[in-house]
Amino acid sequence: MLKLGVPPPVTTTLVVVNILVFAYGILSNSQNVMISQYGFVPNGLFKDGYLEDSILRLFTSMFIHAGIAHIAFNMFALAYMGGFAERAIGKPKYIALYLLAGLGGALFHGVVASYALGNGDSVLIGASGAISGILGISAAMGDIRGYYWFVIQILFVFIGSIASLSIAFAAHVGGFITGLVLTKLLIELERSKRNPYRGLT
């Protein structure tokens, strides 16, 4: 008799929400409007000073995707790796790190786009930064697949650049580093709580 495990609830919810947002945009023919109104524009934050609007866009941009291939790749990576990360650190921390990695990825991309590449007026959308953060969580918790999937993402970005697809490489890198570093810090905090005298002489 086949025994199926319980799907990770937070990861499943994130996948469903992303798909519903994408489906709404397509079915209501409002996809382009959603992208322009809720996508993150780096120059709006770093050069034009639209702080409140940019903060909102940093969050909403994580749940908007450009097309089928974009959302399919992201949701596959999230569904494949999210369960391990969610179980490893617990639901509240998982949600927090997912959002923080998305923010970290978008901000890192924004700095690079606005100050290094000079294309800060381009709109950033997608869950890639947050999902890269999930890969960082998995890697920090000892799941080598986190690093493998990050390499696959880099290859995907490279292929996209050859095919003239607009892929925000810096958002992937920033999200992965955010997830990895924050998870390492959480691990150290947990160790310190268990052994408050560790390292004292």
From TrEMBL:
* Record field: transmembrane: 12-35, 55-82, 94-117, 123-140, 147-163
What the entry lists under InterPro entries is as follows: Peptidase_S54_rhomboid_dom, Rhomboid-like_sf, Rhomboid_protease_S54
Q: Does Cell membrane appear among the keywords?
A: no
Q: What GO CC annotations are associated with the protein? A: membrane
Which of UniProt's keywords are assigned here? Hydrolase, Membrane, Transmembrane, Transmembrane helix
Q: Which SUPFAM superfamilies match?
A: Rhomboid-like
- Identify the Gene3D superfamilies for this entry: Rhomboid-like
- A Pfam family assignment: Rhomboid
| Keyword check for Phosphoprotein | no
The protein's location, in the record's own words, is: Membrane
Principal location: membrane
Q: Name one GO molecular function term.
A: serine-type endopeptidase activity
Q: Which first-to-last residue range defines the signal peptide?
A: none
Q: How is this protein situated with respect to the membrane?
A: Multi-pass membrane protein
Say which domain of life the source belongs to: Archaea
The Peptidase S54 rhomboid domain, residue ranges: 54-187
Stored PANTHER family: PRESENILIN-ASSOCIATED RHOMBOID-LIKE PROTEIN, MITOCHONDRIAL (PTHR43731:SF14), RHOMBOID PROTEASE (PTHR43731)
What family does this belong to?
Answer: Belongs to the peptidase S54 family.
Q: Output this protein's name.
A: Peptidase S54 rhomboid domain-containing protein
